[in-house]
Amino acid sequence: MGNSSVPQGTQNFVASVTDAIINPLLAVIFAAALVYFLWGLAMFIIHGENSSKRSEYQQHMLWGVVGMTVMVSVYAIIAVMLSTFGVGGSDLPDPLPFSHAPSAVLTT
Fold first, then answer.
1. Do 14 and 2 form a contact (C-beta atoms < 8 A)?
2. How many CB atoms lie within 10 A of CB 43?
3. How much is the pTM?
4. Of 28, 36, 82, 89, which cross-links 15 as Cys (Cβ 3.0–4.6 Å)?
């Protein structure tokens, strides 16, 4: 997995907890924030003529966006921490395939 200072058993445990518990939990919370935003948007459109209702549903949309932003940020922080400590998970993206291309391909 990469970093030799972290025991292999610990790496496997953290990777499995991240893959089995943390990432699905983040996805569920993100989905809830998305539904909250979309519900606020629908109610905002339905109650377009009522300014007090529009203001209320603008707040729903705002907090939905805030919630989604926080969940994406938490996922990114966790990914950086796992990468920093050399713990890989199956949900972490692999490097781009062309970033390690051999230079021999460009011979003239």
1. no
2. 16
3. 0.68
4. 89
Among 13, 25, 3, which Cα is nearest to 75's? 25
> Once rounded to an integer, what is the mean pLDDT over residues 88-93?
54
Report the pLDDT value the prediction gives residue 48, as an integer from 0 to 100: 83
State the chain's mean pLDDT as an integer.
Answer: 79
Q: What is the 3-state secondary structure (H, E, C) of the chain?
A: CCCCCCCHHHHHHHHHHHHHHHHHHHHHHHHHHHHHHHHHHHHHHHCCCCHHHHHHHHHHHHHHHHHHHHHHHHHHHHHHHHHHCCCCCCCCCCCCHHHHCCHHHHCC
pLDDT digits (tens, 9 = 90+) for 30-78: 999 999 999 999 999 998 888 888 889 999 999 999 999 999 999 888 8
d(CA 85, CA 65): 30
Residues 6 or more apart whose Cβ sits within 8 Å of residue 85: 3, 6, 14
